[in-house]
Amino acid sequence: MSEVKQISDDKKIKVLIIAPSAPLVGGQAVQARRIVNNFAAEPRLQVDLQPNNPQWFPRLQQIKFVRSVLTPLFYLIELLTRVPRYDIIHVFSASYFTFVYVTVPALLAAKLFGKKTILNYRSGEAEDFFTRWGKALLGIVRAFDAVIAPSNFLVDVFAKLDVKARSISNFIFVDKYIFRERLPLRPVFLSNRILEPLYNIDCILRAFKIIQSKYADAKLIVAHEGFDRKRLEAIACDLKLNDVEFVGLVPHERIAELYDAVDIYLNSPNLDCMPGSLIECFASGLPIVSTNAGGIPYIVEDGVTGLLVELNDHGAIAEKAMLLIENAEVAKRIIENGRREAEKYSWTHVREKWLDLYEKLSGQSAVERTNITAVSSTQ
Q1: What pTM value is reported for the model?
Q2: Which of the following CATH numbers is that of domain 2-171+346-378: 3.30.1360.180, 3.40.50.2000, 1.20.140.10, 3.40.190.10?
Q3: Which of 186, 297, 348, 354 has the smallest number of Cβ neighbours within 10 A?
C-alpha cells in the first residue's frame, strides 16, 4: 500500500504559489490562500504557498529600514531552497516595486532550475506601469510560460501591449455569504477597501456628507486599514460627519457578518482590476454604487448588477446611493441580478480552469491524471 501511495505522490503535479501572506492582507493573499486550501484534497495536485514576505524575525521586520533589507533577502533564500522541489512556479504579482522585488527573483529562480512558470498579474495599474517602466519589463512578462489575469480587463490591456494572456477570475464561496433582500434599504453604508489614496475613500466621505444632509440617521462603516487612516479620520472630522465608524480590518471569517449589517456598498477607486469585494456583495444581496475605474465595468453592469459613476464624482455617488434607497424597483433588480452573477465566480467554475492549466504546463495527460485519481480513491 505504501508503495502504491509513493507512486501516486511522485506523479502529482507540484505547484508552488508565491503570494503575500500574513501580516499583509489583500486580494492577492486571500485568493492565493483559497487556491491552496481548496486544492489540499485534490489527488492530482500538491499546491503549497511560498510567502513573498517571509517573517523570520517578525518584530525586527516591523522596523521599516530593517524590513526593506531583510525581507527580500529571506525571500530569495526561501526561493532557492523551495523552487527545486516543484514542477510549476505560480507567481502572484502587481505593479511597480512589487513586480521587481517579487516577480523577477521568482522567474529567475524558476528558470535556473528549469521549472514551468505562471504569472498571475493582478493590478489595475498595468497599462500605466508598463508604459512608464519600459519594454524591458514586458520581456520579463513574456518569459513566463503562461500569463493569467483575473478579468478580461487586464487581458485587453495585455493585448494592447502585444502580450497574450487569459482570464481566470477570482472566486468566492457563495453559500458562505448571508443573502437577503434588503427592502426597503436603510441608509447604512459600507466601504472596505484599503485606506490608501488609490482607493479614494475621500470621495466616499464627501458623498456621505451629501447623503447625511438628507438622511440624518445615515451611517457609514469604513472597514479596513492603511497608512491613510489618520488623514481620512481628519477629513471626516472636518466635514462634521456623524456616525462614521472606522472599525479597522475585519477578519475574513467575519466578512459575511459585516456585509449583513449594512444595506449599500460604496466603492470609489481611481484604478482597479477585479475587486473580490464586489463579488462578495453580489452573493450577499448588497447593492453596489461604484466608480467605473479600470476593470470594474467588466464585473458590474451599470443599471443591471450595480450603479456606476465617473471617477472622483462624489455627487454622483451620493445621487445613486439615494436612488437605491428611494426606488425599491431599481434596488430589487440590482440585488436579484447580482445574486445570479455571483454564481459565475464559484470555486466549481474556476477549479477546472486551474487544473487544466497546471496539467498543460506539466505535460501530464488527462489519462495519467485519471489514473492518479483512481489509485487515490482505492487507498
Answers
A1: 0.84
A2: 3.40.50.2000
A3: 348
